Amino acid sequence: MKKTLLLLLGGLFILLGLFFAIVPGPSLIFLIAGLCCFAVYYPKARCYLALCQKALTKSCLYLDKKLSR
Fold it and tell me: What pLDDT does residue 54 have?
């Protein structure tokens, strides 16, 4: 029951993230939340989650450098 609910919630978050990628909105937040839900049971989702986290960290550092000038 817990696994099913978590996977449904993860699927909903992924769909909302894809929807907000087309329509302006917080797409990255929903995609990462969906990956967090899937990462509990699927190791491949953990790899994608780590990749997204690294990319976001790198882009935030880049923006901090550019804005501090």
Answer: 92
